[in-house]
Design goal:
This protein has 10 helices and 9 strands. It has 262 residues and is α/β, with parallel strands linked by helices.
């Protein structure tokens, strides 16, 4: 039975076998627990199974696809017909998961920000191997002082080591998307800057990047009545712009803000 991709769910099935083999080779899957988000017709799933994982869990929102996957893989996989945005990740498996995902482009940033910003000290995954729209991936991997550097790069690099793996042509999917895709590999950092609450990093970066073209004196004034003292303490040049501040500097600003509100 030919499954017709649903535009409403942002479905673009990965069909290029060479790319699928490359994706599967990124991680050591043998005897590990694997989670695959949006497996579609199971093309990647087939190759993951060849690597003999301990267990593979598929999360697929489309009921019709779930029925097809059950027919195709029988009891070789665990299938959850659920929405990834509504699932409690900590209840998926007792073991840490290797996560593969060809994420729907319209919700990809929401999914990955949910996972990483909500995390406490203990990560529920050992690595994430995720496909994004190239434009989004460029923002995730961007560095300080670049035009793409912004809230997304700060959020995700806060707790993760992030590496671009390769770009993927539209020809590798059915139906062909109009844009290029990029595979990105995330692994948790052993040490990261500890904040009281991740929502404070969200707030601070929102205030700064709402005025991206302006000097940082403006957002600092908005956040701190004693902004001169804060800027001296943190050795901030008030003529800089938001994209000129490092992740560490943003975390230090958040720390000052947390002292203020507590």
């Amino acid at each position: 039975m030919l499954i017709k991709p649903k535009k409403s769910l942002g479905q673009n099935f990965l069909i290029d076998k060479n790319i699928i083999k490359k994706i599967v080779s990124i991680s050591k899957i043998l005897n590990k627990d694997v989670l695959e988000i949006g497996p579609g017709t199971g093309n990647l799933t087939e190759y993951i199974l060849k690597e003999k994982p301990n267990k593979i869990i598929l999360i697929e929102k489309d009921k019709l696809l779930c029925d097809q996957l059950r027919l195709k893989f029988q009891d070789k996989v665990v299938i959850k017909n659920e929405d990834i945005l509504k699932i409690n990740e900590n209840h998926i498996s007792e073991n840490k998961l290797i996560v593969f995902g060809n994420l729907p482009y319209n919700i990809s940033t929401k999914i990955v920000c949910n996972w990483i910003l909500k995390l406490e000290r203990d990560f529920w995954f050992s690595e994430l191997i995720l496909m994004f729209q190239k434009e989004v991936a460029d923002r995730i991997i961007s560095k300080i002082n670049s035009s793409n550097y912004g809230r997304l790069s700060i959020f995700l690099n806060w707790k993760m080591n992030i590496k671009k793996v390769f770009d993927v042509s539209p020809n590798c999917f059915y139906p062909k998307p109009k844009i290029q895709s990029t595979l990105v590999h995330f692994t948790p950092k052993n040490n990261y800057f500890v904040l009281n609450e991740s929502k404070n990093l969200e707030k601070i970066t929102r205030v700064f990047f709402n005025q991206k073209r302006k000097k940082i004196k403006n957002p600092l004034k908005q956040l701190f009545s004693n902004y001169h003292e804060v800027s001296k303490k943190l050795k901030l040049d008030l003529d800089l712009r938001p994209q000129n501040l490092s992740l560490k500097t943003y975390c230090n600003i958040v720390k000052e803000y947390e002292k203020l509100i507590n």
